[in-house]
Each structure stands twice: as C-alpha cells, then as structure tokens.
C-alpha cells in the first residue's frame, strides 16, 4: 500500500471510529435516562470486556499477561477510571454537544503535559496554541456567568482523565495487543461504575428488553469504534490521520442537536473553533519552535 493510499485508508478508519464513538455516547445517554449511571457503566464495561476477551483468546493472547501489572499500565488504569467516570457523568447530566466539544481539548493537554513530564520540545507558538485552545474551553463553560453550571466541570475532569490515560499509554509495553488494551479499558469502566455506585446510592433496576438491546448495541458499537481507532493509528502516518479525530465534534454536535434537541450557542461555536484550530496548528507545527 502506497503512503498516500495508506493515509486515505487510515483517515477513513479514523472518521468511522469518531462517528461510532459519538453514537456510543448517544446510546449510553439514552439508557441512563432510566437506569442509574453506575449500573450503565458496569453493564457497558462488562459487555465490552466479554467481547474483547473473546477476541484476545481468538488471537491467542493470554488474558492476564505479566505486563498488564506494569507501572505504566497501572497508572493508565487509574486515569482510565477517572476519565471514563467523569466523561460518562458529563454526557449523561449535561448536553452531549458541549461535552463532545470539551473532549476535543484532550490533545492540547497531552502536548502540554508531555513537554512538562517528558521534556518534549514545545516552542512558544505551540504553547500559545495550547492556551488559546484552553481559552476555548473556558468560553464554553463560562465560569462566573449566570449560565455557568458546576456540572460542566465534569466534562473538563473527564477530558483531563483521558489526557492522563493517553500520556500513560505512551509508556505502556508495546507487546500488549489491541484486544488486551481494550479488555482492560472496559475493566476500568466496571471499576468506575462500582466506585460511583457507592456515591450514587441508587438501587439497580431491572433491565427491559428495549434497554437491553440498546445496551448491547452500545457495547458492539464501542468495541468496533475502539478497533477502528487502533486500525486508524496503525495505518498511514500519524500526522495525516490524527486531525480527523476532530470529526467527532461534528458527529457529537449533530446527535445533540437532532436527537436530543440541544441548543447550539454562539459561545459553543466560538469555543469549538478555537479548540479545533489550536489542535490543528499544533499538529501542523510538529516539534518546531
């Protein structure tokens, strides 16, 4: 496969992954309207873990390789639990559209933290872009204004958790397969659900056939989305494929507007533009000053 064709295929995989992740969020948001959030997390995590366990066994990978207890994987698990819990709470309790937009700031935080923690070279232009993108997040949540709601902080906390997970993934053992990473990623969902159940203090409810089908669809879509993301990152050049992550913003906004009837404010549009332009600029600049 030529480089140009590989980049095209990788980009298609990335767009497909982002569309599926947005659909997964919408399905879980629908289930959470009648089922406690902790129960949603546990059911979704359990379903996804079963699918990835089957895939791991099919490819001959052990389900509990020694490297899953390495320090990077343990740190990754902590951030995964943190990110999954708060991000799920965010799109359940606040508009899906605004939550999706704030999530797009994750790469900005990853680049900034990598400079501080790993000593990666980040010039003043990229630092300026990082702060500009974070300013977009502030514009969206509008702290100090009458329209500010403390619940909007949930999306920011979820985004920070995912940024920490991505940073820890850089140091994760390279021999761990996609199926194993997916398996333990969904285990983190179970842990997040069990942790939140203590604070939520709501009894679990019986699952109806309709709810069960929606949850099964969410599990299937989530696994396919995760697999598509891994395919995207392993096909073509990272610099060519990664910008298409921002297509998730379009899918999330569309679902929020047309499925859940959410409003699109001027602040959200302006903040979205700042976040996306900042992220694309950082990708374009690479490691130059």
Characterize the structure shown.
This protein is mainly α and 289 residues long. It has one domain (3-285). It is 74% helix and 0% strand. It has helices spanning 3-31, 37-58, 71-93, 96-103, 106-118, 124-141, 153-170, 178-200, 209-233, 238-241, 247-258, 266-285.
The assembly state of the depicted protein chains is single chain
Helix content: over 70%
Cα-atom Rg, whole angstroms?
19 Å
Count up the helices: 12
Largest sheet properties: none
**Which of globular, elongated, flat, extended, rod-shaped describes the shape?**
globular
Q: Poorly predicted ranges (pLDDT <50, ≥5 residues)?
A: none
Overall pLDDT: 85
E-strand count: 0
Write the layout of secondary structure elements.
Elements: H1 3-31, H2 37-58, H3 71-93, H4 96-103, H5 106-118, H6 124-141, H7 153-170, H8 178-200, H9 209-233, H10 238-241, H11 247-258, H12 266-285
Helix pairs in contact: 1-9, 1-11, 2-8, 2-9, 3-4, 3-7, 3-8, 4-7, 4-11, 5-6, 5-7, 6-12
